[in-house]
Amino acid sequence: SQLAEENSWALSVHEGESVTVNCSYKTSITALQWYRQKSGKGPAQLILIRSNEREKRNGRLRATLDTSSQSSSLSITATRCEDTAVYFCATDASSGSWQLIFGSGTQLTVMP
Amino acid sequence: EAAVTQSPRNKVTVTGGNVTLSCRQTNSHNYMYWYRQDTGHGLRLIHYSYGAGNLQIGDVPDGYKATRTTQEDFFLLLELASPSQTSLYFCASSGGVRAEQFFGPGTRLTVL
To answer: Average of pLDDT values for B2-24?
Structure first.
């Protein structure tokens, strides 16, 4: 069963615009991670946000976590063509299996 | 920087064939993972290990064996490959439970 799921299959924006990818999850977690996968590459972590944190930033990226609604968002400001990628959220469960469960991903396309 | 390498990068085999996918990490990480990635399913965990000689079952282990020969090397074995195992396979490593995972570049396997 999916512990985490992104809410959109695909998004497209123009360079310079801001965009938000949303994720919902189903169980109590210790942390949520956002990964990015560019074409032909393996995923790479962008941000890890713990359950006691509400917001985390990394340059142009901002992740939020709302444990009451079991949701997270990843916002990218001043998008660039090189931000084109699939974005995944991944969660672990605070009890039971600790393994990361990845969502299906959101394909973000940034157009010139 | 963390380094995970995989070989081969592409592999074509026939139904019933034997395939071994190799992964090596130079991060001195204890944990290593094998995932498969299919459209619509995201990343699904096949097997993982927390040290040489250790093997744990993931979410989709059927038809796969794995072996961790050293801290650096983790192998995925398909002894009777089937077309349903056509997929993109990723290896990853991490320093601890629920920690950031570092992914290799992937192996594209086609079973005819």
So the answer is: 95
